Amino acid sequence: MSIFVALCAVGLLAVLGIVIDCGGRLRAIERADALAQEAARAGGQQIDPASTMSGGPLTVDPEAARRAAKAYLTANGVRGSASVDAAGRTIHVTVDGTYDTALLGVIGIGSMTVHGEGSASLVHGVGEAENGG
């Protein structure tokens, strides 16, 4: 009977570890997505004044947008990258990191990778939603 109880206890601890650490990883992914989205918004505010003032299209300054996004990520203690599309209207940010496990370290899983993405697109003169809703 005691062997059965010991095996059940180990199994329950393993399941508990999976539930706690996978839930923690999901929260870390949500945070990475949120930080990437906010960094993209920060980058999207870096409008190219030369293009706008001359009557050209509304575009972001690619270098300033990348710097602003990276500064936001650095201020929040995460690593990531930012890029601006060729038209200069969308900035895309990715965040990479790790989640340090709480219980799965006992079986050799000390950390799990985390990846988040976000993007922001410039819109001009929006009166209603783009999808008609």
Salient structural properties:
47% helix; alpha+beta; elongated; three-stranded antiparallel sheet; 133 residues; 3 helices
The major sheet is characterized as: 3 strands, antiparallel
Q: Assign a percent range to the helix content.
A: 40-55%
Give the termini separation: 63 Å
SSE series = HHHEEE
Structural class computed from helices and strand pairing = alpha+beta
Using DSSP, what is the number of strands? 3
Strand content: 15-25%
Shape: elongated
Number of helices: 3
> Main sheet: which strands, in order across?
1-2-3
Which stretches are poorly predicted, pLDDT < 50 over at least 5 residues? Answer: none
Mean pLDDT: 89
Radius of gyration: 22 Å
Write up what this structure looks like.
The protein is an alpha+beta fold. It is built from three helices and three strands; from the N terminus they run H-H-H-E-E-E. It has a three-stranded antiparallel beta sheet with strand order 1-2-3, with helices on one face. Strand 1 (79-84) and strand 2 (90-100) form a beta hairpin. The longest helix is centred in the N-terminal third of the chain and has 43 residues, at 2-44. The protein is elongated and about 85 Å long. The relative contact order is 0.20.
